[in-house]
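Structure (tokenized):
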């Protein structure tokens, strides 16, 4: 395959995340190449992609070599804006908006056409990053938090969608008269090791009471899904102890910290007899999955993207 610059783009509800690799198509999910970080990145929270425009203007200084853009999107409006920027600033590039049919993954879902492409890309990336035959939950903590199950046969089995930490806090503020909007709800911590956001139970102040509720909403959902999935694995003859948690998104690190604290508390209560999951944190999971997909030369040619 001819090497060319690659832009992987995850268009979310709140941010557009872009990673650029200058030296052709990386294989960042290969365990031997996990240090294959992007050459540059952009995370744009603006509605009209103003930061992306500034970033692309700087990127243009790298020359007019053609590049490939591989994009997954859950926002049609932002995708239109991104394409407008590319037509203006990088007309020589090729762009492919990824669809479910592009992903080599089996999906057991009632209406596959309604499955968010971000969930499918995360599942595909998990299949590439974890050992074969490993059942796992992908947990993406963003505006919405998603928890999805991929079984030991590599089949996407569906999952749950709930509000992310910031959305939970914003809903309380919008729908009540007296509750305030707290700062950085995604950084609330149960372990008490950080000064900002450290929580104690029970909370004795309104802001911390909201933080505690936000944290337990997410941690409770993840752990409930974890126990349910272990039961499913056992009923189907699998190994429940093989189940992994793969956490992505901007709040991945704090979510891992809170989960570990939760399981520490359970171990203290039950004498260490409660099983705890193996957790893998990869904030760039979707971007790495898109970069890996860019190695699929047959798919690119099928979609008319000449190399």
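Design, position by position:
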């Amino acid at each position: 395959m001819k090497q060319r610059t690659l832009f992987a783009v995850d268009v979310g509800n709140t941010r557009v995340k872009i990673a650029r690799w200058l030296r052709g198509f990386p294989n960042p999910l290969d365990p031997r190449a996990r240090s294959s970080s992007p050459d540059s990145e952009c995370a744009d929270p603006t509605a009209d992609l103003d930061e992306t425009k500034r970033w692309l203007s700087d990127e243009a200084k790298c020359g007019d070599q053609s590049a490939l853009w591989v994009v997954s999107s859950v926002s049609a409006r932002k995708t239109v804006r991104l394409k407008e920027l590319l037509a203006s600033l990088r007309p020589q590039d090729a762009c492919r908006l990824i669809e479910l049919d592009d992903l080599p993954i089996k999906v057991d879902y009632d209406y596959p056409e309604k499955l968010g492409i971000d969930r499918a890309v995360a599942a595909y990336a998990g299949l590439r990053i974890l050992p074969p035959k490993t059942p796992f939950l992908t947990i993406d903590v963003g505006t919405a938090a998603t928890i999805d199950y991929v079984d030991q046969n590599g089949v996407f089995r569906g999952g749950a969608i709930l509000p992310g930490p910031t959305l939970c806090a914003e809903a309380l503020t919008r729908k009540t008269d007296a509750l305030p909007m707290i700062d950085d709800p995604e950084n609330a911590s149960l372990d008490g090791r950080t000064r900002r956001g450290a929580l104690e139970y029970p909370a004795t102040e309104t802001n911390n009471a909201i933080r505690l509720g936000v944290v337990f909403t997410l941690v409770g959902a993840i752990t409930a899904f974890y126990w349910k999935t272990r039961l499913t694995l056992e009923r189907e003859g699998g190994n429940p102890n093989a189940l992994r948690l793969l956490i992505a998104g901007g709040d991945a690190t704090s979510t891992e910290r809170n989960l570990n604290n939760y399981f520490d508390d359970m171990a203290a209560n039950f004498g260490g007899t409660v099983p705890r999951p193996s957790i893998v944190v990869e904030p760039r999971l979707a971007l790495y999955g898109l970069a890996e997909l860019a190695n699929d030369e047959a798919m690119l040619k099928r979609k008319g993207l000449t190399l």
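Reviewer-requested clarification: The two ends are 7 Å apart (CA to CA). Residues 206-235 form the longest helix (30 residues).
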